[in-house]
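Submission sheet (multi-component)
Chains listed below:
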Amino acid sequence: MRFPPGRKPSLKKRLLLTLLLPLCAILLALGASGAWLVHRVVEAASDRVLSGSLQAVSETLAMEGGYLTFDLPPSALGMLENSDRDNVYYNVSYRGRLITGYPELSVITKAMRLEGIEFRDSTFRGIPIRVASEARLVPQLDSPVIVQVAETTKNRTALANRMLAALGAGELFLLITVATLVFLAIDWGLQPLSVLRKEVEARNRQPDINFAPLPLSLVPQEALPFVSAFNSLLGHVETAVETLRRFTSDASHQLRAPLTVVRTHVELLQRHSDGTPEMRGAVYDISQAVGVLQHLIVQLISLAKAERPSDEAAGNFDLVECAAATARHYASRALTEKMELSFETAFEKLPVSGNPIFAGEMIANLLDNAIRYGRIGGHIIVRIAPERGVLEVEDDGPGVPVKDRERVFERFFRLPHNQDSEGSGLGLSIVQALGRRMAAVIDLQTPAAGQGLKVVIRFRPARA
Amino acid sequence: MRLLIVEDDAALARAVIKVFRDQGLAVDHVPCGRDALEIVELEPYSAMILDLGLPDMDGLLVLKAIRQAHLSVPILILTARDATTDRVSGLDQGADDYLSKPFEVVELEARVRALIRRSQGNPDPVLQLGTLKLDRATGAAYLRDRLLDLTRRERAVLETLAVRVGNVVSKARLNADVFSYSDPVAPNALEVYIARLRRKLEQSDIEIVTVRGLGYLLRVA
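Outcome: structure written.
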């Protein structure tokens, strides 16, 4: 089945379609045969009453003194009285000649059977009527006398219509009930899937993707193949993610060994710089490139490590000590780059939840960025804010435009004006990965002074 | 003085050997753990550089075997691994220092030198920083070979900063090193000594930098 783009195939629509079309056909057939039956039943019942009246009249036919006589007993016509006030007409004829009664009731000229009553539909002054006729032999007469009684069909039509309406209403009720039940049944049947959906959504919010198979106990039998396939896909994804992580980590480790060789030899070459100026320049360029490469490899390993699930993040540590130690470590480098690094704290000790090595690495990456991308003479502040568990790293460098604040966390994303710097483009990815491990929230802001970047990290309070 | 290098990467070994031969050390090199265990007992090494990723056995096992044999040679571990757990377990099992690859040659040199000094039980008493010379044995300080006129406390502050050159020293640490418990100390006493020291070091290549919120740092310009 193909669906126009943008429209999702609906289970309800399909089920309704497959269920309701045949149901409608059945109901139509049922309606048609019902209508026919109603018509027959109503006709039979009304005809019986009509024939009663006819017989009541024809019973009284007699010959008295050479004259044909009959009575119109009130009871005969009273039978035909009804709420719809049908009109009753009669006539009596002999040998095709009207003897008495309404001439508009056509006289029967053909020969009639002597026994039994014949019914026919006709019109009386344009109004549909039902006519009952009987041929009866009267003593002294050689031909039968034909008596006809007719009534208008208001009553029988009304009766048939009432029954048909009841039939139609019943069918409509059935149709609506089935449609409603289909809706309810689908909702009810799909309910276990919404439990699964909630389970998957809950996993999405966790810092580490949980690749454990979905519990099959919740799954309705019909959805079992789908969920099983999804579970096996989860397994594949887990393997792929793990392979990628291991590859990044292994590859980075493997890169380290040759890099160490290159770096050591280059440093030795620089030390014994007895070459031509060009050669010394080349050695300098190599050593710079090796520095960049080393930074990149160390960052890659760091990122791979940060993204590997582990319970190392469980625990408490003193944020003040951790931040101060990291800031101390970077103070010298900041001075070398002609920048000033300072540390402010609103607490003497501030226990928060997480791993001090992770937090130290986060702060180190932020300081590395601040120094790398900052300006000469710039200021960097590491601040333990008065708000509990909040650490800020603030600089007065070029900052990050608001539109790029999401993207700077992406791997290898670098701001256009930093393309020439020797950064790896991984620093903030590492910060984010480590933050996620400790359920810390990271926010990029513009400092109060209006220039630079303020990175705010909210750590979770220490666990008891 | 004799140095043993245990490193399976021949190219790296060549570079490290050259570094320390240039320093005037006698350097031996073995490429695997078994050879290292054999040779370390035979020669009186002043220090040993041990790579953890050896082809025949884990470097940590070599380390363990050496310590079990009650050999006290100072050992610096060199490794491409950098997991914190590795660092801790290496130091726990009797390593004296730890350096991860890739390293700066200067740092390797400095650390090995420190190890050798420690093995001789005789840390070099003279500290030379640029034009500043500090003789910790006598307590005398020289700037461009001219004796600096320092009070006892100024000297203590200078020495504490000088041995950690390039690193931030916290005020708490300085206070603890300079003042004893019985000393009546004004809250800003340290600032006063730092100011005096700065005056005396003016026009030299030695600078005492205030790192706001963290402490002080001595650097050679």
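Remark: Chain B has two domains: 2-119, 126-220.
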